[in-house]
Structure to design on (445 residues):
């Protein structure tokens, strides 16, 4: 409750939390817009494959040129400026940087960045949740062994859901279900970067003018990102997915506690403690008023008659029986909120959500009929879509994690809707991300 005042104290003492950022795209730009307005923070260095693009983003979000005018990392540290480079290893190796924010959005590269940061005693804010879902438990274990913090990024929906789940449990409630909202129709699962804008609700021209990445936006639309984020939530909270994946029931905010009951109670849950996503569209495609498309929620069991009376007295949002309550946030501010993770780690040595188990997985499913020699193009693309499933089921069938379904060629044909397996692709077993995933499976599965 007092992060700001403690950050202000650091500012007064001249002892800011020193940050290194790897990847200066859209998410990172949102946080960079907040950095000059946050006391007790020094963005020491930014590494991006294109330093010029990173500098353009800094200007676009309002930074003065002199703020990132340092020509070396040491000068940035001494002058309170920000150094921009294409060498991410400079950031992970520098002993004066406290926290690394990994925001490349490239899951396989992110693993290398995080492992190097941990090896060099850096705390981690993991924005690239795609990497967290295929080997996050291992990364967290390695961070614990090194005495550093590994954290999901506040502002992204997984960390916000984890916060709601933690709130409910710390207040003495049993969590019935938790999750996020989404705009969903079953046909979106086949969407590609060529069709995303007509479903998303913007014209191709406006998307081009806004610099919107069709593949990235399509990863949300086709259900890959909801599956990824739901997996991160499960592995950080102990919640579990339904065997068949996400149901996407349509509903308004007021409908959530009625939906998130067991099927035997009139809801859609297959079991208590389920992760789920609520659609903002009715089955006919019309938008539901007061939806939670951009938000997060948790449903919890009031338990006793006394607590249920309290729900009624204080007009808590409940199901029709008054037993199950609901708390929610209708919006999330994405990169604008990452400072909460930075402050929590830098001041309290505490993560804003982190994997504690491996009970959920998101795997690659063929988006179309794929033939031998086809190259997989990752989430949001033309070849694969993410499918949420329990981790033990993923292990049993040898499913290929979605985060690794990028760049490999098929050695077997896979039909549309079929799960792609490790044995279906030509894999470089020496790749550090592949080795990390295999190691995690050995330890946690």
């Amino acid at each position: 409750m007092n992060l700001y005042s403690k950050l202000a104290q650091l500012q007064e003492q001249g002892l800011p939390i020193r940050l290194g950022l790897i990847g200066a795209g859209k998410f990172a730009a949102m946080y960079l817009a907040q950095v000059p307005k946050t006391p007790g923070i020094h963005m020491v260095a930014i590494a991006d494959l294109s330093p010029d693009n990173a500098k353009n983003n800094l200007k676009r979000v309002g930074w003065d040129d002199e703020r990132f005018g340092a020509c070396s990392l040491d000068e940035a540290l001494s002058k309170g400026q920000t150094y921009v480079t294409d060498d991410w290893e400079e950031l992970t190796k520098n002993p004066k940087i406290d926290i690394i924010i990994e925001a490349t959005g490239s899951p396989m590269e992110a693993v290398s960045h995080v492992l190097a940061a941990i090896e060099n005693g850096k705390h981690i804010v993991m924005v690239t949740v795609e990497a967290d879902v295929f080997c996050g438990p291992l990364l967290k274990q390695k961070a614990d062994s090194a005495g550093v913090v590994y954290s999901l990024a506040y502002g992204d929906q997984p960390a916000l859901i984890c916060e709601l789940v933690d709130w409910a449990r710390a207040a003495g409630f049993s969590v019935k279900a938790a999750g996020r909202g989404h705009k969903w129709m079953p046909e979106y699962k086949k969407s590609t970067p060529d069709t995303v804008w007509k479903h998303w609700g913007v014209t191709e021209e406006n998307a081009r003018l806004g610099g919107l990445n069709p593949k990235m936006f399509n990863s949300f639309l086709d259900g890959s990102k909801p599956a990824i984020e739901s997996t991160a939530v499960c592995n950080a909270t102990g919640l579990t997915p339904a065997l068949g994946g996400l149901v996407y029931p349509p509903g308004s905010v007021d409908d959530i506690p009625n939906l998130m009951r067991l099927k035997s109670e009139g809801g859609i849950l297959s079991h208590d403690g389920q992760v789920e996503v609520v659609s903002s569209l009715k089955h006919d495609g019309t938008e539901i008023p007061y939806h939670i498309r951009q938000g997060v929620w948790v449903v919890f069991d009031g338990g006793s008659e006394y607590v249920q009376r309290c729900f009624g007295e204080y007009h808590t949002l409940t199901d029709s029986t008054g037993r199950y309550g609901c708390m929610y946030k209708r919006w999330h501010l994405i990169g604008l909120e990452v400072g909460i993770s930075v402050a929590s780690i830098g001041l309290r040595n505490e993560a804003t959500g982190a994997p504690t188990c491996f009970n959920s997985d998101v795997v690659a499913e063929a988006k179309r009929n794929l033939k031998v020699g086809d190259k997989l193009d990752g989430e949001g693309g033309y070849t694969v879509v993410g499918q949420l499933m329990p981790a033990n089921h993923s292990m049993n069938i040898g499913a290929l994690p979605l985060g690794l379904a990028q760049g490999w060629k098929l050695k077997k044909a896979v039909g549309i809707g079929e799960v792609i397996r490790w044995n279906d692709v030509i894999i470089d077993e020496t790749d550090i991300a592949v080795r990390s995933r295999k190691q995690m499976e050995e330890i946690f599965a």
Observations:
- Residues 360-444 form a domain with the Type Iii Antifreeze Protein Isoform Hplc 12 fold (CATH 3.90.1210.10).
- Residues 310 and 330 are 24 Å apart (CA to CA).
- The chain has a mean pLDDT of 96.
